[in-house]
Design goal:
By secondary structure, this protein is mainly beta. The protein is built from four helices and eleven strands.
Length: about 180
């Protein structure tokens, strides 16, 4: 489809800057992993033996590093979790574990913003979490560091401060 065949203008392609590059990384999908951080699993009262699961955020929820984020509507309980972001350069099915890193373009640091009160209300009704997880400005993210330059991190500190106060700290080994 080209722009001439659309009845309204196409929205801009969500993208992130790449450290050391003039080009940008186009973002098509944002897949998030739930229940992948032991401390948070325990904080939320969940079974730490249960496997992680996936949920999505819309790509246009992405917010570049340093942007001002307005407080989202409909919530009185906004939560934030720092995350390691993995930017893929290719996809596939049934990829052997020893070949998985060949599909990674690079890494960034993101924040998963959650309207926790709306998420919990949805969970109690056994409804999808989307209203609590995927809303405007809910996916702040740093520039991407290419794996070709930094390798594939398996350990290292990751933390989040909010208004100058430490809100979360951990190590990549805990994710």
């Amino acid at each position: 489809m080209n722009a001439a065949s659309t009845v309204i203008p196409l929205p801009p392609q969500p993208s992130l800057p790449v450290v050391g590059e003039t080009g940008v990384y186009p973002v098509r999908r944002i897949w998030c992993v739930g229940r992948n951080y032991l401390e948070h699993i325990r904080e939320m009262g969940n079974d730490e033996r249960a496997p992680p699961f996936f949920f999505g955020k819309h790509a246009d929820m992405l917010v570049p590093d340093g942007a001002t984020i307005p407080y989202p509507p409909l919530t009185k309980d906004l939560h934030h979790e720092v995350e390691l972001v993995v930017a893929m350069k290719s996809g596939g099915l049934n990829i052997p574990a020893d070949k998985a890193l060949e599909h990674v373009y690079g890494y960034a640091v993101g924040i998963d913003l959650t309207r926790r009160d709306l998420q919990i209300a949805s969970r109690k009704k056994e409804r999808p979490w989307e209203v609590g997880k995927s809303f405007d400005y809910s996916a702040p993210c740093s520039a991407i560091q290419p794996a070709s330059k930094i390798g594939h991190p398996t350990a290292g500190k990751i933390w989040l401060t909010v208004n100058g106060k430490e809100a979360q700290k951990g190590d990549l080994t805990e994710l």
